[in-house]
C-alpha cells in the first residue's frame, strides 16, 4: 500500500481537478491511502470532501515560508510516499516541503496543459531537476517538453486521463429525455433545453412529432476552449439544418461573455447554456454531435474521450494532443483551429450521413476501451509509482 498526496492550488473546476478526484478514488479503491491538499475555498476541496477523500486546507503562497513548513510537517506526520503536484504554485511549495520533510518521498509533477513552458532556469528546476518524474496527459505535451525545453525524456511519461467505461456506457445510459419525442407546439421555448426531467415523453406516433438535431459542447468555459467559433458556426448550421438546436454545457470565467455573445448573435432561441452539470453521460446520450473547437493548451480532453465512450461523433480542432484521439475521418473530424466555417461544414456532413455518425461513434468507443479506460490509467500510474520506488530502493 502506498500513501499518496496530491497538491492542487487551482480554485476552479475542470478536467485537471476532475482527474485528481477520479484518480484518487481509483487508487483508494485499489487499497492505497490518498490525501489531497488544496485551498479551503477551492472547488476541489469541497469535491474531495463530498467524495470522502481526506483533504487538508492549504495555502500555496510561495512567499510565505510557513506554508512550506506546514506542508513539510503534513508529509512527515502522514508518512507520505509520493507527492504528486499539479499546478505552478503548489508545485513549488510542495516540492520544497517534500525536500525538507526528511522522508525523501517521490516527487512527481503532472502537466495537464499543452501551454508552452518557459525556457528558463526556474522552469528547468521545477520540471527537470527537482521532480523524480513528470506525468503528462498527452504524448504531444511530453514531446514539446523534450524538443522545446530540452528536458530529460527519460523522466517524462504520458498517461492520459481515463474514462469510467461503465458510467459512460451507451447501452446503459438514458438520455436526459428523448430529444426526438417533442412537438413544437408543446415546447416553450421552441427548442427543448436539456433540463433534468425533461418535458415529458410523447409517443412516436403522436401527430406533430418534431425531430431535433442536437449539437453540443461540453467543457469549462475558458476563452481558449473556442466557444466563440462554435457560436459563429451556428447560423450556417441552422440554415442547412432548420431543426438544429445547440447546447453549451459547463461553467467557468467566460460564462457571461459567452452568454452576451449568444445574445449579440440573436441566438437565444437556438443556443442554450446549461451551466455546470453532473449528469454528463445523460447529456452526451441526448446529443447527436459533440464539438470541441479549442485552439490552445489542450492535453487529451476528458470531454472528448467521454463523448467517444458514449459513441457520439466528434468534431474537434487540431490543438494540443487532441489528434492523438480524434483521428481524422476514423474516430471523428479534425479541423483547423479558429475555423467556424470548417466546423459548420463537418457538422452538416455528419447530419447528412447518419451511417458516418455511427461509424465514428463505434470506432471512438473501441479506441477508448483499448487505450483510455480508467483502469488502464490507474495501471499506468501505479506501475510508474512502483517502478520509481523500486529504483530508489536499489
Can you offer a commentary on this structure?
- It is a single chain.
- The chain has 394 residues and is an alpha/beta fold.
- It folds into two domains: 3-162 and 374-393, Rossmann fold; 182-371, Rossmann fold.
- The protein has helices spanning 15-29, 43-50, 65-77, 88-100, 121-129, 139-147, 227-240, 255-264, 280-285, 302-309, 340-352, 354-371, 374-393; strands at residues 3-7, 33-38, 54-57, 82-85, 106-111, 133-136, 156-158, 182-183, 209-210, 213-218, 244-249, 271-275, 289-292, 314-317, 333-335.
- The strands form three sheets. It has a seven-stranded parallel beta sheet, with helices on both faces.
- Helix 2 links the parallel strand 2 and strand 3 (54-57).
- Helix 3 crosses helix 4 (88-100), helix 7 (227-240) crosses helix 11 and helix 10 (302-309) packs across helix 12 (354-371).
- The radius of gyration is 22 Å and the shape is elongated.
- It starts with a strand and ends with a helix.
Q: What is the topological layout?
A:
Layout: E1 3-7, H1 15-29, E2 33-38, H2 43-50, E3 54-57, H3 65-77, E4 82-85, H4 88-100, E5 106-111, H5 121-129, E6 133-136, H6 139-147, E7 156-158, E8 182-183, E9 209-210, E10 213-218, H7 227-240, E11 244-249, H8 255-264, E12 271-275, H9 280-285, E13 289-292, H10 302-309, E14 314-317, E15 333-335, H11 340-352, H12 354-371, H13 374-393
Parallel strand pairs: 1-2, 1-4, 2-3, 4-5, 5-6, 6-7, 10-11, 10-13, 11-12, 13-14, 14-15
Antiparallel strand pairs: 8-9
Helix pairs in contact: 3-4, 7-11, 10-12
